[in-house]
Design a protein that fits this description.
By secondary structure, this protein is α/β, with parallel strands linked by helices. The protein is 29% helix and 24% strand. The protein has three domains: 4-61, Nucleic acid-binding proteins (OB fold (Dihydrolipoamide Acetyltransferase, E2P)), CATH 2.40.50; 67-218, 3-Layer(aba) Sandwich (Rossmann fold); 231-291, Orthogonal Bundle (Ribonucleotide Reductase Protein R1, domain 1), CATH 1.10.40.50.
Length: 294
Amino acid sequence: MEYARGIVVSVVAGYYFVEHANKIYLCRGRGKLRLDNLSPMAGDIVLFSPGKGDTGSVEQVLPRRNFLLRPAAANVDAVVIVLAPQGPQPNLLTVDKLLALLVSMKLEAILCVNKADLDPQAARLLAGIYRDAGFASIICSALTGHGMDELSQMLGRRTVVLAGQSGVGKSHISSQISLGQLELPVQVGKLSAKIGRGKHTTRQVSLLPLAGGGKVADTPGFSVFELEMESHDLHRYYPEFLNSGQCKFAPCFHIHEPDCAVKARLQQGEINPIRYENYIKIYTELQEREANRY
Ligand SMILES: Nc1nc2c(ncn2[C@@H]2O[C@H](COP(=O)(O)OP(=O)(O)OP(=O)(O)O)[C@@H](O)[C@H]2O)c(=O)[nH]1
Ligand SMILES: [Mg+2]
Ligand SMILES: [Zn+2]
């Protein structure tokens, strides 16, 4: 049996939607995949055996360049963190956790402040926090279309994931910048109702083609985000801490240590107090988890 090579564009209720030669195949996973404990995720390159019509079986998941568990996506070039000045209120602690994870993975993060139409000034403030910290950030409105071209240009040919709280506008952004919805096979039947996008909260990842040749993954929103890392590593993933100059102690976690260059810059207003406060909160959470580990 000949295997075909495709990319998983969505996963719904144990079915894998695999795109191959401009067609989407509705696939099940072979038992071996379950034995290997390798559940295909959107973005995975897989080998599959085409069956009747547009169906098939995923035989093998090819090695991943990288992957994220929340939102679940593999072989990603960048993550666009979407937030809004209101509706919902931004949760910057969650944004900072996600940023620390992405920096630790050496994955590019782009901050996208959507719904700028609701409060342009608050949107500028939010974007400024992250631009000052060293991240690319843009201000946009999926409703008015403002900033959509700029975002498309930034994404270009890359495979990017939209991540962020429920209701910030990820699905609206992805329908603005992508070339359209997934062309689903006819057999999908009831499943296609579940994958419908638009008004309703998104339930699964869908990888859509971008005008510039790349792909964008619309994903379900999340409110809690568990960061898994050592508390003592966290400070390495704050770009604005790294060029602070010399602290007296090495390593310095920039908390209680005397003669700390990061705290000096915080005092001078060169490091954003919200970023710093959230750093302390995340550090403390990680320490508490480490204390309860054994
Ligand atoms: N005012 C305003 N409303 C927007 C904008 N973008 C999206 N919305 C509205 O915000 C609501 C949520 O938008 P979605 O795109 O579904 O949000 P989402 O991030 O995909 O939400 P989940 O799928 O639940 O994670 C909808 O009612 C949209 O009409 C915007 O730029 N401005
Ligand atoms: Mg959505
Ligand atoms: Zn320090």
